[in-house]
Amino acid sequence: MNDKHCDVAIVGAGIVGLSVGLQLVRKNPGLKVVILEKESEVASHQTGHNSGVMHSGLYYKPGSLKARLCVEGRAAMIQFCEEHAIPHEICGKIIVATEEREIPGLHELLRRGRANGVSGLRELDAEQIREIEPHASGIRGIHVPTTGITDFKMVSAKYADLIKQGGGEVLTSSGVERIVREAGAIVLETASGAVHARFVVNCAGLQSDLVAKMAGASLGLRIVPFRGEYYELVPSK
Q1: Rg of the chain's alpha carbons, rounded to an integer?
Q2: pLDDT per residue over 18-73, tens digit each?
Q3: Spatial strand order in the sheet of 88-89
Q4: DSSP β-bridge partners for residue 185
Q5: What whole-number distance in Å separates Cα of residue 199 and Cα of residue 10?
Q6: By CB neighbour count within 10 A (0-12 exposed, 13-18 middle, 19+ buried), where does 145 fall?
Q7: Which candidate, 13, 9, 155, places its Cα nearest to that of 73?
């Protein structure tokens, strides 16, 4: 492709990079935004390989930014899914204590959730746990009715569509191989050509330390990812 010139280049088309891009095109009409993704489609890494949970905000320290954004973000995600007919379910969850020593921790979670504004929380006894989930057993529990699930790969695809409708570009198969500075611009050399940008936003997820290093940043740290695994129980178990 020919060299591209833009105001903002975003490295990474996971849900974070796409969210940043969507906000930029919505709030700054006319701003030229280009998102660069090394894979052949968006959301190919962590965004497309997770449990799809929309967390309620139960766990985080009351008053923290993480707590506030989790609660607000869940509500915003539900609204987005409803507006764009993206499958989602507010299925709720139960947190279970199986031993007496776990009950103080359960009570702390309940306190945090209420302080964070998580609605509908209630403490359960063993019988109430089984009423909601017959396959769960415990001595005490917390019912969190606001927790939900969705398909974040579908959410990301819709973000990408909206970015394009707003005049932005999402370039797949365009992994950044080198970053150089020139007068008045930052040049990102990619597998499909060079992109000249006034500003660059690094949203490369687990590769963001490598992208930062390409740009000349001395972080003194590296990201070491680890893989989670899911197991499916056979019905007889």
Answers
A1: 22
A2: 999 999 999 999 999 999 999 999 999 999 999 999 999 999 999 999 999 999 99
A3: 53-54, 148-150, 88-89
A4: 182
A5: 9
A6: middle
A7: 155
- Quote the CA–CA distance of 70 and 53 in Å, as a whole number: 12
The C-alpha atoms of residue 34 and residue 233 are separated, in whole angstroms, by 43
Angle 86-87-88 from CA coordinates, rounded to 5° = 115
**Under 8 Å between Cβ of 174 and 34:** no
In the 3-class helix/strand/coil scheme, how is 152-216 assigned residue by residue?
A: HHHHHHHHHHHHHHCCCEEECCCCEEEEEEECCEEEEEECCEEEEEEEEEECCHHHHHHHHHHCC
58 in Cβ contact with 74 (< 8 Å): no
Answer for the pair 36, 9: CB distance below 8 angstroms, yes or no: yes
Closest CA to 198 of 38, 28, 13: 28
Tens of pLDDT, residues 88-145: 999 999 999 999 999 999 999 999 999 999 999 999 999 999 999 998 999 999 999 9
**Rounded to whole angstroms, how far apart are CA atoms 60 and 66?**
7
- The pTM score is 0.91
- First-to-last CA distance in the chain? 55
User: 152 and 50 in contact (C-beta within 8 Å)?
Assistant: yes
- Spatial contact of 197 and 185, defined as CB atoms under 8 Å apart: yes
Give the Å distances, CA to CA, from 177 to 24, 33, 192, 195. 24, 19, 10, 11
Tokens at 122, concatenated: 């209630």
Cα separation, 96 vs 44, in Å, equals 33
